[in-house]
Amino acid sequence: MSYTASVVGGSGFTGGELLRLLDGHPEFEVVQATSRSYERKTVGHQHPNLRGMDLRFTDPSELEPVDVLFAATPHGVSMERIDAFRDAADTVVDLSADFRLGSETQYDEWYDGHDRPELLADAEYALPELNRENLPGADLIASGGCNATATILGLKPLFDAGVLSGDEDVVVDVKVGSSEGGAGGGAASSHPERSGIVRPYAPTSHRHEAEIEEFLGLSVSFTVHAVDMTRGAAATCHVFPDGPVGKKDMWSAYRESYGDEPFMRTVAGGGGVYRYPEPKAVAGTNYGEVGFEIDPGNERVVVFSAIDNMMKGSAGQAVHAANVALGIEETAGLAFQGLHPVGAP
Amino acid sequence: MSYTASVVGGSGFTGGELLRLLDGHPEFEVVQATSRSYERKTVGHQHPNLRGMDLRFTDPSELEPVDVLFAATPHGVSMERIDAFRDAADTVVDLSADFRLGSETQYDEWYDGHDRPELLADAEYALPELNRENLPGADLIASGGCNATATILGLKPLFDAGVLSGDEDVVVDVKVGSSEGGAGGGAASSHPERSGIVRPYAPTSHRHEAEIEEFLGLSVSFTVHAVDMTRGAAATCHVFPDGPVGKKDMWSAYRESYGDEPFMRTVAGGGGVYRYPEPKAVAGTNYGEVGFEIDPGNERVVVFSAIDNMMKGSAGQAVHAANVALGIEETAGLAFQGLHPVGAP
Amino acid sequence: MSYTASVVGGSGFTGGELLRLLDGHPEFEVVQATSRSYERKTVGHQHPNLRGMDLRFTDPSELEPVDVLFAATPHGVSMERIDAFRDAADTVVDLSADFRLGSETQYDEWYDGHDRPELLADAEYALPELNRENLPGADLIASGGCNATATILGLKPLFDAGVLSGDEDVVVDVKVGSSEGGAGGGAASSHPERSGIVRPYAPTSHRHEAEIEEFLGLSVSFTVHAVDMTRGAAATCHVFPDGPVGKKDMWSAYRESYGDEPFMRTVAGGGGVYRYPEPKAVAGTNYGEVGFEIDPGNERVVVFSAIDNMMKGSAGQAVHAANVALGIEETAGLAFQGLHPVGAP
Amino acid sequence: MSYTASVVGGSGFTGGELLRLLDGHPEFEVVQATSRSYERKTVGHQHPNLRGMDLRFTDPSELEPVDVLFAATPHGVSMERIDAFRDAADTVVDLSADFRLGSETQYDEWYDGHDRPELLADAEYALPELNRENLPGADLIASGGCNATATILGLKPLFDAGVLSGDEDVVVDVKVGSSEGGAGGGAASSHPERSGIVRPYAPTSHRHEAEIEEFLGLSVSFTVHAVDMTRGAAATCHVFPDGPVGKKDMWSAYRESYGDEPFMRTVAGGGGVYRYPEPKAVAGTNYGEVGFEIDPGNERVVVFSAIDNMMKGSAGQAVHAANVALGIEETAGLAFQGLHPVGAP
């Protein structure tokens, strides 16, 4: 193993997912996982899937020097502790929203004041399919948000290929699982209240709109619903192009963008049970699926995009970005398939 | 009890729901439930909730004379057997799509040829909140479809009050439960394949668009997703009005339409876990909920509407319509509350 | 309506269930629901199924005088406030464990010291199928616990009929839903951690053993598992009788005990999907189901018992007991059927 | 890659799981997957997790010569086609029950007549933790059944260490997920009927008792319940030892048997949410978990055992056995961790 790594905020869901991925990664050795609340407990105490892993949480105030530090802390923590993170590691991959936006102006529009606005321009936003060319050698990487990632992956090829002009009205109706609420929960995420729901979770003004605007260059109408699954984000994008769009154009646009992408699959129609992108089909993996249907009645293009919010929407994307940043094989530690069947992903 | 009733197609999900409702209804006595496959079995054999009910399925070819016949048969059966139904009963309430549309032209656009097109004009479409004035004395009633009902209930008050003009672009993104697929199932609705999904179920061209067009006078962009619940239909309508719309206008429109409706509730914001319409909140009942949020960023109105597809979207609506048709108290047999908590409605 | 009622602890799950039942009860008028945390909020704020109910929570320190007070407070509260409860109401029905056991000795064995041990002998344990003869005129009623109720309902007829002697080894393996954990939750009941589980919840020493011992006169080996449903308790009792037991004896024992019981159903075999007692079949209702199978290989009798823990295991049983205590028709307000299908009850 | 492999019966759930495992296995190359119904379809058509895998189903009548053939066909097929299987491959690993029992007498007691009883003695039963010493060089391997595997893994160390004598009464109460019913389904496994259940699935006389008897040398009282998860089998074994058993003895017995086992974990108590074996903790993996609690009241030992029925209970165990048979590193292709959180495993 060529690189040492640490996970700050190791007891949360994305922290646990990073530990799982790094544990199976051929090039990384995990030397530290921090947790203030669970110091000295094994990582398996919080993450039962990792009960066989020989590692205990340590206090976040004492960071080990490592090659790569992954920060899986709540929004706001990374901007406070960024100097300590960069002192400890050559490469910092932040999974929070703290360094995703490009300017203080943008940040202030959606969040409440940034402690270290001067660093915003330094950080590389990481959605490797979008901008992998910026990542090699990057020392501060901001891994993309889950709902933004799902949306961008579905729409961007259509803009790149000119199938869409960028002036269209776009409605994005997202369905997400309960892991987006994080570990710990509260009344709204308790099992009796949360199971079996279709709940408007962010009817309007979800902060991921900021990332979509910045990286897609398009303002979208964005609504997020919570549904009964644990992992997964499915974005349905209803787009109204100026003129008719053909199936061939759509296929060709996705092929152009994703034909060589190791983690992207285009799924549109065919027979069988699974004809479109579904979170179940990618659960637990770094794969993303995109697909579409054309509505003959109203010249609408319906784009479907599905990811695992904790993987391609968070920890998987972060490891993918670190692979690119360090010059490791892109798929290292991420090339495994998902499960079928799987109940609620 | 003042009226006798029968349920044709009593072994399916909506047939069972009708039996449950009629069993608890103060004015109806169920004298027959038919099922070709389960003849002579008790109704509890198919509907375990009704294991205490003393009634056995009989062959559908021998219909008892009754005051009201509820037909809960697959689409296409009612148009074939309508004469026998009308011979047996003074009032026929059909829960299929066979008699919902007003003209053969409309029907042919969405379905494959109607056996008895001359009856289409005679049948009254029943969505009591929309057109209860047409129902008293009606002898052939076509109970509205679940996804259409959810959509129409959410949008119609806004047109009636002039908040929307009817020229707007409207995207309707519906999420439905597995009972819409009916009893019996197939590979797509088997538990391992169906649980935990967000699956594009009718990406475009869902037949309920026909009802919406006809009764709302508006063409909508309509997409249906299957999600992990058993009962429930939640319609999210993304509407782009020509000019700014205020919260007051919205509240006022819903109050005007639904202020005196016994089964409609408007839910929009407030604190707590349940701030908007949710299928869970109305599961098992004839209640419908509507609510909304206004997106300040793009002058979009987001309308939420939730019903139980088997109740207000089917059997409950049918009994409601029968109550109105016969001059019974509207809420008779339907006034009970739902459950909380309930896992997956 | 003949009686006024109040619900102390109205914002919890069983409090909400009581409000639902009393709202639909022909003889009760709810005049007060208390909640310290949600004072002045509507009951629909906590219980979305009751969004149409015109009632607001009030402070529990000021109790209205009523005919019947239902206490749905956490264990330990009733024994502290019992004098205030009895001052406010002629009849107090307590849903907690505070007054279920008959003696201080019994109580101390399973709980930590009773504030008012002298009242234990006064309180009537209420499992109406077991001891309805004690209830008429009772002024302090302790409604039975859910897991104990399921177990007792399954086994008692066999002892009464002499099919079992009472000396048998009995293993009771119970599966329960998430509502047993109450509203509010914590990490263990958060949706991501709680969904899809089979979790040993009380591997040994569950306190409901005390009730079983006292009211069944038998020590059982008792283990409770949490599974993925919201409502429901299913007890599987593995019993090893001294000699052979026939199916006829079993049927006869249940018929003898439950033949005239309005809320009990015996279900054992037959065809179809639902051949045995299941929580789904009774979800939302006051019905209980019992059934059995005989293992030819090892002369074991397997008894299945299913209830809705919030209904027959709590609020339904409490209203049933109040009906009997006041001389109201036993089934008043409780005679409705459950739902089919229903996702997770 | 050193060995070629084929999967006969590749479109079913265990067939798909084998394909997933072999696709990620460093020593196997899959050269054929058969399916009569889906000939020429990609494997991703049936297994959406494998949409990226470049392999199409072929007709089962034309088997390619391979080093190892995995048969994932329904019970009864392997015994019919065993000669063709052995002609095609040096090593046959059968996942059905056809060759699990050691003698025709045993087989006839639980099943209906064996076509090739003379082969029963030749086949090696494979539960590697139990009998890995028999596997090297084996050419016909019968992979153990899921419920039997869970039970045997939990109990055997206690017999081996003398904590239990083998004369005890043992009640095994198993909870399983819907994948045990296989792909395709029927009414009982349709989502509306199957979700949220606690259903007695095999109240008595489950055929896996035969394996337990044969390989554990003990008759057990065995009952299987279906609960709401897709993957997973959890066995709770209630054992009544002759004399007192201490926690130390239990720990020591499990340490002795499983201390060096790569796939076994002992989990018993401690804090946190996950204190005992749970199917969720091992979902998607070849890990098995065992744990216990001692009931002070009735000198009962409660043993918990959890596996993924499709992995350690089927495909994972089969690959594990093939690894041992061929002298490959035991954990090759199986060493990955599971997911956390995961909705319904």
Automatic annotation (TrEMBL), chains A, B, C, D:
<dbReference type="GO" id="GO:0019878">
    <property type="term" value="P:lysine biosynthetic process via aminoadipic acid"/>
</dbReference>
<dbReference type="InterPro" id="IPR000534">
    <property type="entry name" value="Semialdehyde_DH_NAD-bd"/>
</dbReference>
<comment type="function">
    <text>Involved in both the arginine and lysine biosynthetic pathways.</text>
</comment>
<dbReference type="GO" id="GO:0051287">
    <property type="term" value="F:NAD binding"/>
</dbReference>
<dbReference type="InterPro" id="IPR037535">
    <property type="entry name" value="LysY"/>
</dbReference>
<dbReference type="InterPro" id="IPR050085">
    <property type="entry name" value="AGPR"/>
</dbReference>
<keyword id="KW-0457">Lysine biosynthesis</keyword>
<keyword id="KW-0521">NADP</keyword>
<dbReference type="Pfam" id="PF01118">
    <property type="entry name" value="Semialdhyde_dh"/>
</dbReference>
<comment type="pathway">
    <text>Amino-acid biosynthesis; L-arginine biosynthesis.</text>
</comment>
<keyword id="KW-0963">Cytoplasm</keyword>
<comment type="similarity">
    <text>Belongs to the NAGSA dehydrogenase family. Type 1 subfamily. LysY sub-subfamily.</text>
</comment>
<dbReference type="InterPro" id="IPR058924">
    <property type="entry name" value="AGPR_dimerisation_dom"/>
</dbReference>
<protein>
    <recommendedName>
        <fullName>Putative [LysW]-L-2-aminoadipate/[LysW]-L-glutamate phosphate reductase</fullName>
        <ecNumber>1.2.1.103</ecNumber>
        <ecNumber>1.2.1.106</ecNumber>
    </recommendedName>
</protein>
<dbReference type="GO" id="GO:0070401">
    <property type="term" value="F:NADP+ binding"/>
</dbReference>
<dbReference type="GO" id="GO:0042450">
    <property type="term" value="P:L-arginine biosynthetic process via ornithine"/>
</dbReference>
<feature type="binding site">
    <location>
        <position position="309"/>
    </location>
    <ligand>
        <name>NADP(+)</name>
    </ligand>
</feature>
<dbReference type="InterPro" id="IPR000706">
    <property type="entry name" value="AGPR_type-1"/>
</dbReference>
<comment type="pathway">
    <text>Amino-acid biosynthesis; L-lysine biosynthesis via AAA pathway; L-lysine from L-alpha-aminoadipate (Thermus route): step 3/5.</text>
</comment>
<dbReference type="GO" id="GO:0005737">
    <property type="term" value="C:cytoplasm"/>
</dbReference>
<feature type="active site">
    <location>
        <position position="146"/>
    </location>
</feature>
<keyword id="KW-0560">Oxidoreductase</keyword>
<keyword id="KW-0028">Amino-acid biosynthesis</keyword>
<feature type="domain" description="Semialdehyde dehydrogenase NAD-binding">
    <location>
        <begin position="4"/>
        <end position="138"/>
    </location>
</feature>
<dbReference type="InterPro" id="IPR036291">
    <property type="entry name" value="NAD(P)-bd_dom_sf"/>
</dbReference>
<keyword id="KW-0055">Arginine biosynthesis</keyword>
<dbReference type="GO" id="GO:0003942">
    <property type="term" value="F:N-acetyl-gamma-glutamyl-phosphate reductase activity"/>
</dbReference>
<feature type="binding site">
    <location>
        <begin position="11"/>
        <end position="14"/>
    </location>
    <ligand>
        <name>NADP(+)</name>
    </ligand>
</feature>
<dbReference type="GO" id="GO:0043870">
    <property type="term" value="F:N-acetyl-gamma-aminoadipyl-phosphate reductase activity"/>
</dbReference>
<dbReference type="Pfam" id="PF22698">
    <property type="entry name" value="Semialdhyde_dhC_1"/>
</dbReference>
